[in-house]
Amino acid sequence: MSTGISKSASSLVPKDPSKVMVTREVTPEITTFSTPFLRFGRIKVGGRGTLVRLSSGALAVFSPVALTDDVRSTVTAKGGNVKYIVALDFEHHIFIGPWAKAYPNAEVIGVEGLPEKREQDADTKGVKFHHVFSGSNKLDLKISDEFSRDFDVEYFHSHPNKELAFLHKPSRTMIEADLLFNLPATEQFSKSGLSPTAGILTKLFGGIMHTRGPMIWQKRALWYGSKDRPAFSQSVNRVKAWDFDRIIPCHGDVIETGGKAKWDELTSWFVAGKH
After folding, report:
1. Is 222 exposed, middle or buried (0-12, 13-18, 19+ CB in 10 A)?
2. Do the Cβ atoms of 248 and 165 come closer than 8 Å?
3. Cys-Cys link to 26, which of 2, 30, 170, 204 (CB 3.0-4.6 A)?
């Protein structure tokens, strides 16, 4: 019987998420669920799900976290109408299954290859994806009029993890997964009893994936990791036209203000056409 969570993923997430999860109302429309998460079981990058109440009253959840009793209560307090469940990339889908089961009327949104990946695992198979972004349909795929009123979306299909970025227009907030890291993951480890910076691998990775100064190493990771730089540049330029100040990343602390400047710095090589 499918549990909705793969065995390999279950070893990476907290054993009792309710004890270490930080729930925070970022704005009246946006609530974040921040948890400890160790990449490869060693690097403290943190994890974050984001719940957004649309102007229609419907709810959208991005990169959902464990559906604990507290998370369910928060969803209920926000009206309970979970209409959209979004896997932000090829990797951020661990808890898609439990959310889809709990809210069967929700539309599941993901990226090309992810439905097939999940169907190959007995523990994750069975989730229907209603909207799947691909390199060919990215400019034409529309979720719904209701969704488009509140969100713009850009699909970075040339990123190794196939990234979706969303602009919540009413709050001027970008929501993303692995495009930009803002380490250390201070909030995400704040209830864990663990230092978010301890460990040699965490120190090394945190020394690269931060947003201080020119972000040269994170720039390099994005630049050299891109599989199609012209296509990535086109996506960067579309996002450059967005009006946002806050960035909610999956890894590291929320950038409450000044996020647009950080994003422009990180992606400047793609705008300048570096070779």
Report:
1. buried
2. no
3. 30
Per the listing, tokens 């009793």 go with 69
Q: Which of 186, 167, 193 is nearest to 253 (CA)?
A: 186
Once rounded to an integer, what is the mean pLDDT over residues 211-235?
96
Q: Give residues with Cβ within 8 angstroms of 96, minimum separation 6.
A: 4, 64, 85, 87, 108, 110, 118, 124, 127
72-82 confidence digits (pLDDT tens): 999 999 999 99
- Residue 33: beta bridge partners? 23, 49
Angle between helices 216-225 and 259-266 (to 10 degrees): 60
Q: How far apart are CA 114 and CA 174, in angstroms?
A: 22
Structure tokens at 25: 């109302």
pLDDT per residue as tens digits for the range 156-208: 999 999 999 999 999 999 999 999 999 999 999 999 999 999 999 999 999 99
The closest alpha carbon to 47, from 221, 212, 178, belongs to 178
The size of the chain, in residues, is 275
Whether 157 and 33 have beta carbons less than 8 Å apart is answered as no
Is 35:188 a contact under the CB 8 Å cutoff?
A: yes
